[in-house]
Design a protein that fits this description.
The structure holds 2 protein chains of 2 kinds. Chain A is α+β, with helices and mostly antiparallel strands. Chain A has 10 helices and 21 strands. Chain A starts with a strand and ends in a 10-residue tail after the last strand. Chain B has 14 helices and no strands. In chain B, helix 6 crosses helix 8. The chains are: A alpha+beta, B mainly alpha.
Chain lengths: ~400, ~300
């Protein structure tokens, strides 16, 4: 077990493509860190540099107390789980797990006990004599995990290990991997493009875009205090609702007009974000999460809340909540960040609407709103997010 | 596929009639188009390939031993031709053939595998040029260069007689060069289909390049190794044009060269045909045996289960 430190790590390919730019991350001993971002953001390249499968163009990479920039993968004392599992097809499960130990000329009896221990941990016992092609996707995934943990390395690297599994299995393996990591307390670097995995698994999340680290912190911190529009839009499902508003100074403090509605910004919020006042008379990007809106007829302290009146475009009853889609008459926020997010959504399967600005709110299941209804929506002003529409940065101080 | 669709179409057309009866009704025309035709082609191909084999086997058993007395089915059966063959130099030639063919096939397989691994896995200066020149060089048959090769080996024979004319080693060396290009290309294509994740995974597990090559890649490319080995063996054991220029001494001849000697003389060629045929039959045995042995490795889908899928 060891800490991993990336200090101004860069990766530039020979064709000039700059995949990772000045990446600084300090990963504590035993920490589970998730590198997340849309495809092509450099997260896999960063992981492959830590693994020793890619050269580091500049910067230093330290594992434990050794600088390992020029060390071969096999001397770094790390194990990696590949997206494709990369099991050796001609070896049985047991041989797959034991291969790394055999290469290290470990004692036969020691190999046996270790393989057995790993197999017990991952419930692979009855499968040890099978070949990879006789296993299901989830079982193969477990074997790949087994191969990593049996070596008892200083660091686990995982490159989208769950993306080849179906949704149900993914949820189950997500919990299993998190559990194994907690039991072993091995420093783990986990790459994914799925923000749910990032939110649920990591002690900390590092969100990357175009080779640049956007924000590094606890998942809840990224969710509640995104540093910029990209983080706000990437973390959370559904993504944060955004619209362009105008900041006005009034007697009671500061108000933000969103289309036809005017939202009074509470004093506590302006106090926490002193810079907000300087935007008076200017446009600003306003964000709100879906759960911070409620059917006004059901909301507690609804009287004190700001309201939007709109018609419901679509409802999705999920049982525990009703997801309500509705148009907002304030213009959409368009920045580099939102374009990048949209591109990412297109590569995935999330539908992107091009008709005006559609917001999504999660109502309590007791709400009776249906498609086409006129509805009053109460907004929790305390939970508004403000971003500079030019730079995309969060407005704080 | 066509089978099922035509059947279901018939079923649909005839409505409620049971399918058994329907099949009987349309038996003649339908059967020939579905099965009979392919059987006919198969039988023709079989006849075509069996005819020469049968003729040679018959000739080898013909006690008279002349070409003019040989028939498709032997009138009389005896092993006299085999007897005379083994009393002569044939055992020596046969041994030479086996040694040359096995070593040439084995060594070229190994060298090509190493070359293919490098071309498939490493990125280095001159990789493309190397691949292209290999392709170009192997486009010309080796026999085109026979004069140059002859002159080179004339020189070599004077300096190092051990690998010169009339030696198995010299001929093996020559065969190796000839097979390398095409084998490397063939193998590189196959190596490219082995996911690179496997190499990387083995590297993370602590394997060196050589361990990746020998422990992970080689077992997975067994089919292509078997094929190149087999082709190399057949090519070398049957090779005649170069061998006859190279091997002039009776001791050093391969079976192909030696057997040709039996029928080369216009005066004796009719008389020795039985012996020649017997030699040809025996020479086919190792090839067939090797093929039977390697058959089990020539199967696809060895990488199934390695990665997603």
């Amino acid at each position: 077990m060891a800490e991993v430190v990336l200090d101004k790590v860069n990766k530039q390919y020979e064709n000039g493509f700059h995949a990772v730019k000045d990446l600084d991350i300090e990963i504590a001993d035993g920490e589970f860190i998730v590198l997340v971002g849309p495809s092509g953001c450099g997260k896999s390249t960063a992981l492959r540099m830590i693994a020793g499968l890619e050269d580091i163009t500049s910067g230093t990479l330290t594992i434990g107390d050794r600088v390992v920039n020029t060390l071969a993968s096999r001397d770094r004392d790390i194990a990696m789980v590949f997206q494709s599992y990369a099991l050796y097809p001609h070896m049985s499960v047991a041989d797959n797990i034991a291969y790394g130990l055999k290469l290290r000329r470990m004692d036969k009896s020691e190999i046996e006990t270790r393989v057995k221990r790993a197999a017990d941990m991952l419930e692979l016992g009855p499968l040890l004599d099978r070949k990879p092609k006789q296993l299901s996707g989830g079982q193969r995934q477990r074997v790949a995990m087994g191969r990593a943990i049996v070596r008892e390395p200083q660091v686990f690297l995982m490159d989208e290990p769950l993306s080849n599994l179906d949704a149900k299995l993914r949820v189950q393996m997500r919990a299993e991997i998190a559990q194994v990591q907690r039991d072993l307390e091995t420093t783990t670097i986990y790459v994914t493009h799925d923000q749910t995995e990032a939110m649920t698994m990591g002690d900390r999340v590092a969100l990357m875009k175009a080779g640049v680290l956007q924000q590094l912190g606890a998942p809840q911190h990224l969710y509640d205090h995104p540093d910029n529009i990209f983080v706000a839009g990437f973390i959370g499902s559904p993504p944060m609702n955004m619209a362009l508003g105008r900041v006005e100074r009034s007697d009671g403090g500061i108000t933000v007009s969103l289309g036809g509605a005017t939202v009074q910004v509470p004093a506590s919020v302006t106090a926490a974000r002193p810079a907000l006042a300087s935007y008076a008379g200017r446009e600003i990007a306003v964000g709100i999460r879906s759960e911070d809106m409620e059917d006004a007829s059901l909301a507690r302290d609804a009287a004190s809340r700001a309201r939007l009146t709109t018609s419901v475009a679509l409802t999705e009853a999920l049982g525990s909540e009703i997801v309500v889609h509705f148009p907002v008459d304030a213009p959409r926020v368009v920045t580099e960040d939102t374009k990048a997010l949209e591109e990412d959504a297109h590569t995935g399967d999330a539908p992107v609407s091009h008709h005006g600005n559609i917001w999504v709110a999660s109502f309590s299941p007791r709400s009776r709103v249906r498609h086409g209804d006129q509805v009053e929506i109460a907004i929790d002003q305390e939970r508004l997010h403000f971003f500079d529409p030019e730079t995309g940065l969060a407005i704080r101080d | 596929m066509a089978h099922t669709t035509s059947e279901s179409a018939v079923q649909a057309a005839t409505g409620s009639q049971p399918p058994e009866l329907v099949r009987h009704g349309s038996a003649k025309g339908g059967w020939f188009r579905r099965t009979g035709f392919s059987h006919l082609v198969g039988i023709l191909a079989l006849a075509f390939s069996i005819f020469p084999i049968l003729f040679v086997v018959s000739a080898s058993l013909n006690p008279v031993g002349t070409l003019s007395s040989s028939t498709l089915l032997p009138r009389e059966v005896s092993l006299a031709n085999y007897q005379t063959l083994f009393d002569g130099s044939f055992p020596r030639w046969f041994l030479n053939s086996l040694i040359i063919a096995s070593l040439a096939a084995g060594i070229s397989m190994l060298i090509s595998a190493c070359a293919a691994y490098s071309f498939s896995r490493f990125r280095f200066r001159g990789r493309r040029t190397g691949l292209m020149s290999l392709l170009l060089v192997q486009m010309f048959p080796q026999f085109l260069a026979i004069v140059a090769i002859y002159l080179i080996f004339a020189e070599i024979t004077e300096l190092w007689p051990a690998v010169g004319f009339n030696t198995s080693a010299g001929l093996i060396l020559l065969y190796l060069g000839g097979a390398l290009g095409v084998n490397t290309w063939l193998m590189k294509g196959f190596f490219d289909t082995i996911p690179k994740d496997l190499d990387e995974s083995a590297k993370m597990d602590g394997a060196t390049h050589f361990q990746v090559f020998s422990g992970i890649i080689l077992p997975l490319v067994a089919p292509i190794l078997a094929i190149t080995g087999l082709l190399g063996f057949i090519g070398a054991i049957n090779e005649f044009l170069i061998a006859i220029i190279f091997l002039r001494e009776d001791e050093s001849k391969t079976a192909a060269v030696g057997l040709y000697g039996l029928i080369a003389d216009p005066l004796t060629k009719n008389a020795n045909f039985g012996e020649f045929s017997a030699g040809a039959v025996i020479l086919a045995v190792p090839t067939v045996a090797l093929f039977m042995y390697l058959q089990r490795y020539i199967v696809g889908g060895l990488t199934a289960g390695a990665v997603k899928g």
